[in-house]
Amino acid sequence: MPAKGKHRRPKSQRFTRSIAVAGTGGAALALPLMGATGAHAATPTATVSSTQEKAATAQEKAATSAPATAKKTATKTYAVKAGDSLSKIATDQSVRGGWKKLYSDNRKAVGEDPALIHPGLKLTIGKKAASSGTTESSAKSKSSTESSKSSKSSKSSESSTKTTAETATPATDTASSSGYTLPVEGATVGTAYKTAGSMWSSGYHTGVDFVVPTGTTIKSIAAGTVVSAGWGGAYGNQVVIQHADGQYSQYAHMSSLSVSAGQTVTEGQQIGLSGATGNVTGPHLHFEIRTTPDYGSDVDPVAYLRAHGVTVG
Asked: Phi and psi of 266, rounded to 5°?
């Protein structure tokens, strides 16, 4: 046992010395090794950081270019269909700014009257807005000024018309109080109801014609709900409205429509403009009163209006 103990001690001492030497010599070696290890460890970190920066830059570029691409693809062309109005198109196509924006973008194509659009007319939808805030602000200011002038002019015109009507035709007050009015003002009565002729499929004229130039405002004779608004074959652009008494009024050959099916209207509200669409020989308003919304259920329209306090002719 003692011999083994002696045998183990020297080994233990040598082992200790070896560790000491290794510890002493290793310290000098360890520092460079640690430095090298640190250097190698830092390289992947720097690479990842650089990659992240590049990715972020790429994302920023993509985000910057995306709106420009979207603007390019947002613009499209729309062909006007029978029964369309700028208001209806703006709603259906989700035009930001409504019909006024649509009209502003297509003023050259439409002309001075925004209500005078016709089937086949090409409209640009989603036109690029003004790039500078100053231009946009100026446009808004101009639009506001024009709107204000238009509003004042409209009020002045309405006031003048009302004054003239009250002086010349006292029956106008009666019409308003009864809830009924003429479909068009200042019109001459043309072909009368029940006029016989082979030109009509029924053998007679199913309504009464009011002779007015194209572009004259057409109004609903009373409050009601629009049953149909669109192309009516020989009737051209037409509107049919159901009223509270269960009767229907029809307005045909219009150049443009201002209402759509399902819409509620009030007495005297504009529903479109007169024209010469469909089977006609000249511009006028063909007006009917029906017991149903369909052709062939006509009654005397002049007698109907007079029964509601409206003077005709």
From this structure: -110, 170
Tokens of 180: 């009924």
d(CA 173, CA 16): 124
**Cα–Cα distance measured from residue 208 to residue 288, given in angstroms and rounded to the nearest whole number:** 7
Cα gap 118→271, rounded to integer Å: 16
What mean pLDDT is predicted for residues 129-154?
Answer: 47
- Under DSSP, the state recorded for 233 is G
Residue 91's pLDDT band, with cuts at 50, 70 and 90, is confident
208-211 vs 285-290, strand pairing mode: antiparallel
What is the domain partition of the chain in residue ranges? Answer: 76-125, 188-307
Query: How far apart are the C-alpha atoms of 116 and 217, rounded to whole Å?
Result: 11
Number of H helices, E strands in the chain: 7, 13
Q: What would the pLDDT profile of 218-230 be if each residue is shown by its tens digit?
A: 999 999 999 999 9
In CATH, the number for domain 188-307 is 2.70.70.10
Q: How many CB atoms lie within 10 A of CB 298?
A: 21
User: Read out DSSP for 48-104?
Assistant: HHHHHHHHHHHHHHHHHHHHHHHHHHH-EEEE--TT--HHHHHHHTT-TTHHHHHHH
Hey, what long-range contacts does 163-172 have (CB within 8 A, 24 or more apart)? 169/311, 171/309, 171/310, 171/311
Strand partners, 231: 237
CB of 87 closer than 8 Å to CB of 99: yes
CATH fold, domain 76-125, is Membrane-bound Lytic Murein Transglycosylase D; Chain A (3.10.350)
Distance CA 112, CA 92 (A): 23
Instruction: Name the amino acid, one letter, at 219.
Output: K
- Phi first, then psi, for residue 275 (nearest 5°) are -165, -150
Amino acid, single-letter form, for residue 30: A
Burial label for 280, CB within 10 Å (0-12, 13-18, 19+), is middle
pTM of this structure: 0.47
